[in-house]
């Protein structure tokens, strides 16, 4: 960037000082009043605004999440906005514990139209606003402070004058000095005080004073100072609910909201996943779950977050970034090998004991709390290590010995690097069994097991093994060997003594799944001449599984030998 361009920018200069600020030493212990503005602020920010049907589906989604105050639109802006409010009211779609909110400018005809949209509502918030910042006053309206106050005052008076239109409705006034964060704080206080004096709220019938960061102009701590100073100096404080409405121009909308709550705000306006003008509004889902993961009940129901996200995307036609906090498809996912290993061990530790505090490295929340699954927590690509491979194989009930796991992880890394892809648990299972499992008809295995029978005398075990050797060019040679040993595997080894002597170096077996019908999976490591190889076998009979694993290892060792021989011949 051209450094000369910096001259046009100047740091934000606060108009108040707060040297004894209290908010830094506080913590959030209770949730605010949540207000979804998806139907208005979020909707007007969409490339294609929602039609009535989409707005209805979205309204129902927001209600199902537990929101008690919902801004449904700007009724005077268009027939769609007006008709949507009428549909909700006339068809009795608003639950008794939900209050709808509508936005209006301080113009008499717009106020009349807005009140008409609310006829028949049990309870409603009429949200009046006008711009108050120096730039807005000077550039947009050519107004001084007195004229700006007059706009707000006339708006309140017009609402009072025409309130009989909604005589059966409990009407609550919300007032916003738009661009509060960029307004001289003492002037914002003065105009809000004037509005309160006209409306005459009481502790039982409070006014809502909404103090928006319509555009982020400074760091979140400055916004918190403004909120705390405003609250300290507000007369008749007990008759007002202090609300905030932040935007995300500096990428700190969520932080600004959290600090504002520390500073004394009681109510938060925003959208479900942060959609809004420019870089967006405060993300209410993230705010709520930030509280949840600190042990504070946000009083919202987000247990099925994937379904909420799906409905959001369907109604708004807007995507959710894969790294979006909590809901993004990749936020419960680790590709780094060291992260995968730590998550795998952390999950195992959590599931093994009766832990009361969630403590899993690299995973700040339990995915199942939000309707997500553990297997999405770890995904494998060329950057991954054996921890991630092990975790995903475990999802398929495959737990290979450490040495075999290390060997297979190198094959996975090579495959994902060459193919520039990632591998799911199902794909890893297929890859693992394709490489190590003895499968009937696998043409990579030159020796085909035909039959294996054992006879146990109580002292020694004897076995008879029949197999076919594929010597190439359609030349198949049958073999039949007999051997004795202390068990089936030793008997099998002895039966091969005169043909291909080998040793079993390692052997593991476990159940492949759960229940009486589960198969056994065996892992066998052998040495054949100078070649060492692992094999895997699966069977409902544990002995047959071990025999198949041994045959698999023999075949893999033979492939290694033949491959080395071909290289020596220059083939």
Give a brief rundown of this model.
This protein is α/β, with parallel strands linked by helices and 571 residues long.
Largest sheet, order of strands side by side?
A: 1-2-3-4-5-6-7-8
Quickly give the structural class: alpha/beta
Total of DSSP H or I helical runs spanning 4+ residues = 17
What CATH architecture label of the largest domain applies? Alpha-Beta Barrel
CATH topology of the largest domain: TIM Barrel
Taking the alpha carbons of the first and last residues, their distance comes to: 59 Å
Give the tally of structural domains: 3
How many β-strand stretches? 14
Give a structural overview.
By secondary structure, this protein is an alpha/beta fold. The chain folds into three domains: 21-316, TIM Barrel; 337-436, no CATH class; 447-568, Alpha-isopropylmalate synthase LeuA, regulatory domain (Double Stranded RNA Binding Domain). Helices cover 38% and strands 20% of the residues. It has helices at 38-44, 52-64, 79-90, 108-117, 134-141, 145-162, 185-199, 220-233, 253-262, 284-292, 305-316, 337-352, 386-395, 402-419, 425-436, 488-495, 542-568, and strands at residues 33-36, 69-73, 99-105, 123-131, 170-178, 207-213, 240-246, 267-270, 447-456, 461-470, 476-485, 502-512, 519-528, 531-539. An eight-stranded parallel barrel has the order 1-2-3-4-5-6-7-8, surrounded by eight helices. Strands 9-10-11 form a three-stranded antiparallel β-sheet. The protein has a three-stranded antiparallel β-sheet with strand order 12-13-14. The protein is elongated, with a radius of gyration of 35 Å. The model has no long low-confidence stretch (mean pLDDT 91).
